[in-house]
Write a structure and sequence with these properties.
With 117 residues, the chain is mainly alpha-helical. It has two domains: 7-54, no CATH class; 77-117. It is 55% helix and 10% strand. The protein contains three helices and two strands. The protein has helices spanning 29-54, 63-71, 84-112; strands at residues 7-12, 16-21. A two-stranded antiparallel ribbon has the order 1-2. A hairpin with a 3-residue loop joins strand 1 (7-12) and strand 2 (16-21). The longest helix is centred in the last third of the chain and has 29 residues, at 84-112. The protein is elongated and about 90 Å long.
Length: 117
Amino acid sequence: MRIARKGTWDIIGSTVCVLVLDKLQLKSERQKMSYMYRHFTALQQISRRTIASSARRQVDNKVRQKQKLFQEDNGMPIHLKGGAKDALLYRATMGLTILGSAYVVYELLSAASPKKK
């Protein structure tokens, strides 16, 4: 059985679109479907192995370390115990909260004042 590697797309039956190889010299439609099914299942197995093998590395559980860090009584505010990233996040949150509150008050005052005609 000699198979060329160039292919064209063709519709088999009326359900799926599969790659039919040019010069595929198989005797029956059943042999063609069997050939394509074998290649399809091989491709499935390769893709499963690739996905499954990439998730095997072990990830350390850092919850206990973080609990110890945040629960120790050292007089430091909780928003500073996480480091520089947490301090920056806290400041950005507070800044946006103050700006948002000021904007709400401005809009309420402008809505409450009568419009000049």
